[in-house]
What we know:
Oligomer: single chain
Largest sheet: 4 strands, mixed
Number of domains: 1
Strand order of the largest sheet: 1-9-2-3
Amino acid sequence: MIHNSDTKRVLKSKRMRIVSIPSHSVLAILDRALKSKGVQPIFLWQRYIDTIEKQMKEGLLLYGIEGDETLLNEIFGEANLHKVGMLGFVNGHEPGEGILPLHTVVPEVGDVVSLTYVLEGEYKGDFQTAVAMRDGRLLTEHGSSLQGIHPILFQHRVRPEDVEKKEHQVLALEA
């Protein structure tokens, strides 16, 4: 999960990097689909500690959507912005239960890829239990709200042209 806790510092970064990713990966598909709607994703090249393999790694992360700072403040409150992250889903599930980078996950034609903002510490990884949306809230079959998750920000059904293998590059800020 990527935190938007230091958005201003990261977004003012002058260091940029061009990163090539598989064109048929979830991340590349989301990048193209968002841009086709006039939405600019923000990517971050970051060093992080892999807590499973217990080693330092580098990777590409979808940090957020340009211009969403005001929305995030309204949804989660300024005091919680340091806990806000963005998650991607395939058919309502976090790939690899949240440990696989989206640029390594390859969906199939017909799959639905989704993005949403979540609040770490409140979101419990129960996205797939949502069965309805009412008044801006995702609801379980029992009518209770999922906590710490914003309603789906973006969804895209994977088409045959999405999974064609070709070059895809993104411009990423270096954290």
